[in-house]
Amino acid sequence: MSGFLDGMRCSECIDWGEKRNTIASVAAGVLFFTGWWIIIDAAVKYPSGESLNHSYHACGVIATVAFLMINAVSNGQVRGDGYSEGCIGQIGARIWLFIGFMLAFGSLIASMWILFGGYVAAEGAREVYPGIAIFFQNAFIFFGGLVFKFGRTEDLWQ
After folding, report:
1. pLDDT in tens, 3-25
2. Which residues form the domain of 24?
3. What is the spatial distance between Cα 134 and Cα 116, in angstroms, rounded to a whole number?
């Protein structure tokens, strides 16, 4: 999965080998920004707690923490390539990455639950856009984290 940009070749346009980290970083930043922009739009459009419960913002915060946790560990640390320092070394890096992915998937699943349980299947006529905004915020942050983690290569850092 770490080489999904390798299959895309356009040698006339762009040399992907030199620009891979830049493109992945910009794409991840745009996805992350779009997620937060959507929820800011929903919070401005529905300022009352009746339409958009303010506790639902916790999913986006947890997704952001997961984004940071996932990308705080390099692939070399997870593989154990010359990484023996730190608290618990390779095992600690793997546990950190696993907890980060659990938080990311958990926030995405929680946002789906909020969307369907709180807005789609809710009693009475309720506006659905706040639930959609919460889901898309978490989806964009989740996919931005994946692009930032697996879209870049560490070979260019050496």
Report:
1. 665 665 555 565 666 788 889 99
2. 18-157
3. 11
